Structure formats: structure tokens, C-alpha cells
From TrEMBL:
Residue ranges constituting the HTH cro/C1-type domain according to the UniProt record: 44-79
GO MF term list: DNA binding
Organism, as annotated: Candidatus Thiomargarita nelsonii
Pfam families noted in UniProt: MqsA_antitoxin (PF15731)
InterPro entries recorded: Cro/C1-type_HTH, Lambda_DNA-bd_dom_sf, MqsA/HigA-2
SUPFAM superfamilies: lambda repressor-like DNA-binding domains
PROSITE patterns per record: HTH_CROC1
Name of this protein: XRE family transcriptional regulator
């Protein structure tokens, strides 16, 4: 695999120099695993942080063990759809969540 050729093609397509692309391509060739974040995982963590709550406080708010919340945020397990619905409400209307649950 010609990493330089691929990197140049990606940069040309992006319209800018991408300083870490060569290193990333080499890691791919070497079989190094990358971190993968699901949209649910990112939304859960971002919303909790947006509310200004620690993992412990947020877990208490949504009435779930903090270890379960950590598992969801770290991608070990997927959060249930009902929780993601609550998180979406919290993200868009934090005042509603606070009025109802706090």
C-alpha cells in the first residue's frame, strides 16, 4: 500500500493538508485498533456535560447505577432507546428535565 499516494489523494479531496493522515494510514496498515464512538455514546456524554452534571449526579437523576452510565458512555454497552429519548429531551429542553426530575 502506498501511504503517501493515498494521503495525497485524501488531502486533494479534502482541499487541505491533513497533518496526521499519514500516521493514521500507517496505523491502519499495522492493524492498530482505533476508538469508535457511537452517536448515542457521544450524545449521552455531551448532554450530561451540557447539564453540568458529574456522572454520579446524572446517574442519580436518571435513576440508574453510575457504573451502568459509565458503561454506556465508554461504549461497552448501548443505552436503551427509552434513555436516549430522555437524553434528547434533556439536550433540547434541559429546563423540562430539571422541572420534572430535579
Amino acid at each position: 500500500m502506498d501511504i503517501e499516494k493515498i494521503a495525497k489523494a485524501i488531502e486533494m479531496d479534502a482541499g487541505e493538508r491533513l497533518p496526521d493522515i499519514r500516521e493514521s494510514l500507517q496505523e491502519m496498515v499495522d492493524g492498530k485498533a482505533a476508538s469508535v464512538h457511537t452517536p448515542e455514546q457521544l450524545m449521552l456524554r455531551t448532554t450530561r456535560q451540557k447539564l453540568g452534571l458529574s456522572q454520579s449526579d446524572f446517574a442519580r437523576l436518571i435513576r440508574t447505577p453510575v457504573t451502568t452510565l459509565c458503561d454506556w458512555e465508554q461504549g461497552r454497552f448501548n443505552p436503551p432507546g427509552s434513555l436516549m429519548c430522555l437524553v434528547e429531551i434533556a439536550d433540547k429542553r434541559p429546563d423540562v428535565l430539571r422541572d420534572v426530575l430535579m
